[in-house]
């Protein structure tokens, strides 16, 4: 990890011996008194800490120089048909790492309903994946996650997000005539990027997307896995904005 996240600034300055992060600092990073380490507060600021004391049992005390402003997120929302749990874990991690502003999952017509009942969603595991992605990305923000019963419900909720000023693209290797990179022309405009279920969009869903103002776009002629489409699609948008 490239920084260690905490819920509060106080937690970051005194890390108890029984905290797994203290063990990580000692045994994985192999840091000791005098060594620097980056820390952050979830959805807050980031700072450069210096280990100033080893506490009894293996805890550590840090002196942290906090930055004035938190790292930024990018104005991209991902709208994704609920994938199988192992795929969703990668999507969550990559989305937080890349810095998207939100993740909306919907039950797609061609999706598998049982995926939404996985323990990934019924426990805090989904949040842990966001947490790990943010640490990897040297950031502090965990993008909000929402779930919708179907695409229509997700599109209805989306109407109020950007006050009507928003770019909307749906990745579709079959009917997306234009490349996403060619369509993405408005620098820093809030953007929703939709990725269908692992079996693709239904005809009804394509009609719903078009009616909601989405442009069907492609990333090329290859059929990508859901996690690859999310990662590549966001990367194309960021590259177009000069954010990579």
UniProtKB/TrEMBL annotation:
Keyword Methyltransferase appears in the UniProt entry: yes
One GO cellular-component annotation of the UniProt record comes to: cytoplasm
Question: Where in the numbering of this chain does the Ribosomal RNA small subunit methyltransferase E methyltransferase domain appear?
Answer: 75-236
Q: Tell me the GO BP annotations in alphabetical order.
A: rRNA base methylation
- Please give one Gene Ontology molecular function term for this protein: rRNA (uridine-N3-)-methyltransferase activity
Q: Name one Pfam family in it.
A: Methyltrans_RNA
Q: What is its EC number?
A: 2.1.1.193
The primary site where this protein sits is cytoplasm
Q: Where in the cell is it found?
A: Cytoplasm
Family recorded in the similarity comment = Belongs to the RNA methyltransferase RsmE family.
Name it: Ribosomal RNA small subunit methyltransferase E
